[in-house]
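Archive entry: two folds, one per protein. Generate the first.
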Amino acid sequence: MSTSPEATPTSSTGSGTPGSGTTGGGTTGAGPTDTTSGYDNATGTETSPWKTGLLVFAGTIMIVGGIFQFLAGLVALFRNEVYVVGLNYVYSFDVTTWGWIHLIIGIIVALAGAAVLTGQIWGRVVGVGLAVISMLTNFMFIPYYPLWSLLIIALDVFVIWALCSADRKALAI
């Protein structure tokens, strides 16, 4: 058995002291957060890749979902014959109205997703609210384009889960 630092077992927090920039195995960390061990030297707390990854996931899905809704809004505005609905639907609006609704929600969701990716706390709070609004809007839009609406609703569920389960300081820059 070797006695080199690389072969020595270490704890999950690394063998370096807080603020030293080293981790188990003798690796030097770059910057205030040591990415190899998940130890944040600036705050003295543990960070998890899952916590940061959930916010990156949520922000990315919000941007993609916002672009999807924006495109659905453009289709409803310029090619409204793509969406067809039966005559007896409770939430029946003109397709042009649905186009404007999707266009506006899409832009706001994409902007909130960008805020989440930059570590803004308000982006997470607004993101949860917008995901709920997006889910309700797409629920009412199901008769016009069912598969599309169900896909966006499913993405919104994952966004809410990711935004609510991630640590408050996970992506703060």
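Generate the second and append.
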Amino acid sequence: MQTLREIHSRQRRALYPLLALFVLGWGFTEWKTVFAGLILGSLFGLYNFWLLVRRSERFNLSIENGKRSVSLGTALRFASGIAAAAIATSMPEQFDLIGTVSGFGLPYVILLVDRIIYHVRHEQGR
């Protein structure tokens, strides 16, 4: 079984080439706002997943030490989603809102695909 940190590392390795493609799309196409929105949303989505990993590790550590854990993890993830949407709506000439929302969900789509591939490979290995 993989740890959440290993999953996050695999997700980053999958998302960085996509971000590079988005940068190329931003630089060489006329759809600059769409690609800028995809970049913005993907970065905020990756930040959200990193927050989840960090909070999960802190929670596990506090359980091991027998302490109670107080966290604002969900509130911070909601706030970062709102911040990404606020940036996109406040600067519509720079960022496309639909691209931003799509980019925000992209790390979770990559996570889903990675988990499916992981489980299919491990089922074949049995």
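Annotation attached to the second fold: DSSP finds four helices and no strands in the chain. The mean pLDDT is 90.
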